Amino acid sequence: AIHSLRIASEERPTSSVVFANIGIAYLQLGEIDKACAALRRAVLLDPLNSTALFLWSDAAFHSGRDGDVIEPLRLYLQHEEAEAAAWSRLARACMRTANLDEALKALRHEASIRDSSAVWNNLGVVRSLRNETVRALECFKRAVEKAESPDDWSAHLAARNIGQALLSRGLLDEALQFT
Hints:
11 helices; mainly alpha
């Protein structure tokens, strides 16, 4: 498949779709570096190719290169402000690169589009990283309340984060009551 796609890229060197498909093929082979390079090229050819951008963002996250996708995500969001998945990925990349102010802004945008347990848990994580424990606890509580089902993974993470925040403040009795 890679060979056929390489031939297609020679015939259509400006096709974002071809390079996105090359990136997908490399992802399926577990070759993250090559996938990132192909997906980056796809995004450079078409900054609004959400498939390529989101796959690149996810691959960059798994390889610890979140900083590579921040600018392309910002550019994309200038045109697609209502795309919750893009705000989520920007927040994740900013959080991983310690740009907590921008992560918080991105999560607020995401929450205005998609009010979910996952968003509220992530807001709590950013608040916690900013040493805003009380506000973090409020966010985690909201995440638990927003659970869509008893097995909502984000709500479970938020509950764990509540316990961890209480313990970090030395509130053992409260943590035990909570759990």
